[in-house]
Design goal:
The protein is α/β, with parallel strands linked by helices. It has one domain: TIM Barrel. The protein is built from eleven helices and 13 strands. The two termini are about 20 Å apart. The relative contact order is 0.15. Bound molecules: N-carbamoyl-L-aspartate and zinc ion.
């Protein structure tokens, strides 16, 4: 097959940052995706509908006036969130979900939830109003090995949470383990998961490939090959519980190549082409549209996009480096060759 045409995809997990950095990266997402679920982990975080609306406006200001790109905004859950914040979401047209970062789990998560019971009334309200909870699924206990933090979260936190809030819509974000694949596959229809390009492409060997590779470091961290294979199988299976979320999370080159490098991989430039390559390698190109353009919209209860996009077989080299405000960012697969290219529309 030399070309594939699918409904234009959405990105159900995206970090756009703010100010100059936002202006550098948002065009890459707008070129590939019709809509994107925008993560709220700014500094300070996006905790209210009012802040989300202001952020949305800053995003749209970077784009041409006639842009088709739609940011789907989210709120950052803190211990001090109120049920009235959820009532506001239900009324707001542009806010679609609430993000749970366990405090200390990842980049800008210090304002996150310290104990889940602090937000039970808010979760109750979300369940009642049908607002999805997006979860960074890792425990933060330093005694738990970093490679086990997702699995322990699923057993100790997520399973009891789903029992208590059996109608709450939950997305387990950027899954990295067979445990997550099994848990989501066997879970209720209210539970789904997003899958990033890097967790389809790489196992943890990519962190130590002839030396330390900070640009392959993200959270949850890459796992063993058996986990990668389970994620590839789930994403390419057509199972409607798994859908596209790039977790594109740009950090300046300098802050990744540091003695305490930031977690996050920039993939907004080429994510769709990478997903396509993975689906082709798996002999499942026929399932790409479902994963990229149908499953997520269905889960969120939003309409399917009408526009189509075409990818053609065409090799191209991923730039080594891209501008990022007054700094630079290194994209996923920097300097490597891709076999598919999204046609400009
Ligand atoms: C994200 C970021 O940099 O904002 N980093 C990452 O490694 N994925 C935060 C997150 O989603 O964990
Ligand atoms: Zn993320």
């Amino acid at each position: 097959m030399d070309s594939i045409t699918i409904i234009q995809p959405d990105d159900f997990h995206l970090h756009l940052r703010d100010e100059e950095a936002l202006n550098s990266v948002v065009h890459d997402s707008a070129r590939q995706f019709a809509r994107a679920v925008i993560m709220p982990n700014l500094k300070p975080p996006v905790t209210t509908v009012e802040l989300a609306m202001a952020y949305r406006q800053r995003i749209l200001t970077c784009l041409p006036e006639d842009t088709d790109f739609t940011p789907l905004m989210t709120l950052y859950l803190t211990d001090r969130a109120r049920t009235s914040d959820i009532e506001e979401i239900a009324k707001a047209e542009f806010v679609h979900a609430v993000k749970l970062y366990p405090a200390g789990a990842t980049t800008n998560s210090e304002y996150g939830v310290t104990e889940l019971k602090n937000v039970f009334p808010v979760l109750e309200k979300m369940q009642e109003s049908g607002v999805p909870l997006l979860i960074h699924g890792e425990v933060t206990n330093p005694d738990v090995d970093p490679f086990d933090r997702e699995k322990v979260f699923i057993n100790d936190v997520l399973a009891p949470l789903l029992k208590q809030f059996s109608e709450l819509k939950v997305v387990l974000e950027h899954i990295t383990t067979r445990d997550a694949v099994d848990f989501v596959s066997n879970g209720p229809s209210t539970l789904a998961a997003t899958v990033t390009p890097q967790h389809l492409l790489y196992n943890r060997g990519a962190l130590f490939n002839n030396g330390l590779r900070p640009h392959n470091f993200c959270l949850p961290v890459l796992k063993r090959e058996e986990h990668r294979l389970a994620i590839v199988e789930a994403a390419t299976s057509g199972n409607e519980k798994f859908f596209l979320g790039t977790d594109s999370a740009p950090h300046a080159k300098d802050s990744k190549e540091s003695d305490c490098g930031c977690a996050g991989i920039y993939s907004a430039l080429n994510a769709l082409e990478i997903y396509t390559q993975v689906f082709e390698d798996q002999g499942c190109l026929d399932k790409l549209e479902q994963f990229a353009s149908i499953n997520g919209a269905r889960f969120y209860g939003i309409s399917q996009n009408t526009k189509k996009v075409t990818l053609t077989k065409q090799t191209w080299e991923v730039p080594r480096i891209l501008p990022f405000g007054d700094n630079e960012v290194v994209p996923l697969m920097s300097g490597e060759t891709l076999r598919w290219k999204l046609q400009s529309q």
